[in-house]
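User: Predict the structure for this protein chain, please.
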Amino acid sequence: MAATADITLGYMPLFDSAVLIAAVEKGFAGDEGLSVQLVRETSWANIRDRIAVGHFQAAHMLAPMPIASNLGLTPLSLELVAPFALGLGGNAVTVSRDLWARMAADGAGPGADPSSNGASLKRVVESRHRSGEPLLRFAVVHPFSGHNYELRYWLAACGIDPEKSVEIVVVPPPLMADALSTGAIDGFCAGEPWNSVAVAAGAGRIATTKASIWRLSPEKVLGVSARFASENRPTLDALLRALYRSSIWCGDRANHGELAALMSAPSHLGLPREALMPILTGQLTLGDGAADEIPEFFVPHAKAASFPWQSHALWFYSQMVRWGHVQHSPAQAERARNTYRPDIYRQALKPLAAPMPGANMKVEGALTVAAPVGASEKGLVLGPDGFFDGRIFDPDRLDDYLASQN
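Assistant: Here is the predicted structure, written as structure tokens:
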């Protein structure tokens, strides 16, 4: 099909850009009449600023980024919408080998269990405090990122105050491994492949994963300006259909070898194909000879992975409130919720008869086993989606959840 619309789309060199890259490289965008130019960026701040000034029509975004923009928390804030999710999971928390040695001496390991490894980290933090050592420094990729909020959630649930007991700084994902190896940081939370890069370089050990902290949890979205969504709906709808078809292809195990090879190209991640396969299989090398199998470490399509749940938006909002990033009010909560646009998703995918939830929100963390749910046209299975500490987030009881956080 001849191209009928041009889109410049920014992305970061992370494996969870796979749905975007495959949509272009495998021809799904072209099939929808789109000519998409992919632009690799070096930081999330660049992504944020370039979509704000109009360099990008759409972008690979951290799931909380468009929410933060709509709440006026970022420079050059503009109204953004997130009509499509780019998968679930894909992050890990990696610590330096020195820190891991101290954690292991205090009971950590052998796998990536967030409870036991978090308990050992707490003992190390307390020991360092008693001996007058500096605070441990952890890096995240952006203040308004799933990485920041899941790291804080994990630390707090394990009894470590992320505001007082550690220091949290921002480092771009490709620089994490180097920062760890030089001792500039003691640990980081980032998306793959940068945890595995740190492990392969002998700089770190994976302590836990996003999928272990909150199973099947949201991570990246497609972000577009509200103006673009309003003025270019046929183009946006075509892009979402291309991304949906791409997500099916990326989620098919038969394509995983080809997907890893595609993502390994110098223009994308520039890493060996073999180094990327564990992201798709969940068979992670943790470091120091340890390995672990993480169920559904990264999910690009199954379990409604592309659906922009408004309950996900409200959970991120709850963490923004918890850590003092925004003052809570009903109007602010509504603004955060409406950043995610399942209505656009449904309209765009209607011609595909794609299975999708009938609701816009769900109770997060309530499913302990996979469960079929009511969906349009075809069946859909969700979960399990539990938080490691057993907590549940009911978006209809937001005020109660906010009151329960400490």
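The chain has a mean pLDDT of 95.
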